[in-house]
Amino acid sequence: MVMVTLVRHSVLQLVSVRIPGTVKSIGSKVFDNCKALRRFDMPATVTTLGNMSFRHAEALQSVTFSEVLTTIGNAAFQYCVSLVNVELHAGITRIGNFAFADTSVAEVTLPETLKEIGMGAFTENFHLETISLPASLEKVETGAFFDCIGLRYAVFAGSPPMDWGEFVFGSEIMDEETLKSAVTICYMDANSGWTSPVWTDLYGIS
Predict the structure, then answer these.
(1) How many CA atoms lie within 13 A of 98 on its CB side?
(2) What is the pLDDT of residues 138-172, one digit of tens each?
């Protein structure tokens, strides 16, 4: 496997970067704290994105994701405050803990292959208004969309995921009644599981 690992002082001032098409994995913290990096076009061969790989890349506005990418590591894009749009291709099965936390993401496309959304994966994305969750989803961990105070609709394409964490749509900013009136949970009547007691409170508020 060919992996990208760079010397830290050589990347901090990067504005753009070109990576060879033979690379299959981008390692942990490779572009961490690269505050000048504005765009990243991922090679079509990359299957794995390491933990904290782009964390604190505060100027990052555009990421083109590989179509063979399967895993996005923990905190991969956390604190990328200029990142607005995320389009993930089919093939991705897991989005890691806090992967897109504390960004400016307003639009996100989740593929039909996605099985797991990690803890706090999209927490504190204040501009996110609608999230469509694919039928393939099996696990949503604690606080996945915590404090997404702009969220208005969560649309489920299939039955409830078997493994559902606490406070998935919870908030410390909004009180219980405000949160429940703000976020509408949408699902198809034909899909099973929505009458189960565990789903009487999707917001995780006790």
Answers:
(1) 12
(2) 999 999 999 998 998 888 888 888 888 888 887 88
